[in-house]
Write a structure and sequence with these properties.
single chain, 123 residues, SH3 type barrels, 7-stranded antiparallel sheet, 2 helices, 7 strands
Length: 123
């Protein structure tokens, strides 16, 4: 019988260290796993969308998604910065998941905002 090996799952919120942001005062910050579970299970890295506090943030209506506190275990209202999608080695996952996966409603909003930030005009 195989052991139940845990891996980051699509839609989970994790605390992450962003290597290209060494002076980030919010380090580690929260990010939402957006890569598929199959990829997350077999690869050494994950694709994430970082989040920022909704306070004092200039929201872009196409590229940012408002996520309310409690969703996915987020402690405060947050903005998913879909224009900042990045791939992280799993070693940069500091702690998580913070709660249950975010709802499909927000997952689809994030997918569409990522697509828009990449120039997809069909969203």
């Amino acid at each position: 019988m195989m052991a139940n090996i845990s891996f980051p799952k699509n839609g989970e919120v994790w605390y992450v260290d962003l290597p290209n942001q060494p002076n980030d005062p919010q380090k580690p910050r929260t990010a939402i796993i957006v890569s598929t579970d199959g990829r997350n299970r077999t690869c050494g890295d994950v694709v994430v969308v970082p989040t920022a506090s909704a306070e004092k943030f200039n929201l872009h209506p196409l590229y940012h998604v408002q996520i309310p506190a409690g969703e996915g275990g987020l402690l405060k209202d947050s903005i998913a910065r879909c224009d900042q999608i990045t791939t992280l080695d799993k070693n940069f996952l500091a702690r998580g998941p913070l709660g249950e996966r975010i709802s499909l409603k927000f997952s689809w909003k994030i997918i569409n905002a990522v697509r828009a930030s990449l120039g997809d005009t069909t969203v």
